[in-house]
C-alpha cells in the first residue's frame, strides 16, 4: 500500500467515525465496525517450526486475506508457552494482539505454582483451530504389538516400561500419566527438553516408548523405525487406519488430543471477536488449509467463541486432576 493510499484510508476511517459520532453512535463502536485498519499480531508461545507455529502461520495467512489486513506471527517462546501468554494477557484489548491458546495453557493452570496471567479471566476466546492426536509408539525391539501387550510387559517387568516426553507437564507427558492411571501399568516417565531429543533416544533404544504428537511420530512409523501401538484420540487416524485407539484397546473413554485455538485479551469488544471468529472459520474451511492440515494429521475445528470457552474450562478441570495425580509441578 502506498503512502497516499494509506493516508486516504486513514482519512476515510476518521470520517466514518466522525459521522458515527454525529449520529450519536459511540466512537468505540464505530472503530469496532472498521476493524482492522492495520496489521494484527498473532503471538505463538513456542519457537518457529513446531506444530503450534505451523498451524498458526497456516491460518494467519488465510485470516489476513479475509480481514483485509495481514496477520503477523510472532514467536515468544519460553516456560511452556507462558511467556507468550503473559504478553498477550497484558496487551491492549483491541483485537490487534492475539494468542495461540493451546492445551498447554489449560495444563499450566495447575502445573505451575504461580502464573503471570489467569488462563480463564485474562483471555477472550476467538475460536478453535485444530486438534492433533498423540500416538503410543515403541522402539521395534520392544516385544509388544498391542496395548494389552504393553500393559502386560509394564506390569510383569520389575522395572516397568519407560516412556519419554517433551517435558514435564506437556500433553505428551500427561497422555502417559492418564494411561498409567487408567491401566495400572508400571511406567517410568523420562522427561526431555523438547520432542526431538526424546524421539532420538526412543529411536536409539535409550527409552522404550512415547505418546508422541502424530506429526512427529508418523514419518518414523511409516519408515518402520517406530511401531505404533495405539492412537489417543476417540477415533482412528486416517493416516494410520490399521492402528486402533487406546479406547478400543481396553481403556474405554480414553480421548486425549493436543489442541490449538486463538484467543484475545479479556475485554476485547464482541464485534471484534465476532469478526475474528468469522475470518478464522473461513480460513479453516479453505480447501488448501484442510489439505495441509490433513498432512499434519490435524483435524480443523471451526466453531464459536462460546464453544471454545466451554471446552477450555472443561480441559482445565480435567488436567487439574491428572496433574495432581501425577505429582508433576513446575515452580
TrEMBL record:
Q: Which residues form the signal peptide?
A: 1-30
Fetch the InterPro entries from UniProt.
Answer: BUG, Bug_dom1
Q: Which UniProt keywords apply?
A: Plasmid, Receptor, Signal
Q: Which superkingdom heads the taxonomic lineage of this protein's source? A: Bacteria
Q: Say if the entry is tagged with keyword Signal.
A: yes
Q: Give the matching PANTHER family.
A: BLR1237 PROTEIN, TRICARBOXYLATE-BINDING PROTEIN
- Family from the record: Belongs to the UPF0065 (bug) family.
Name of this protein: Extra-cytoplasmic solute receptor protein
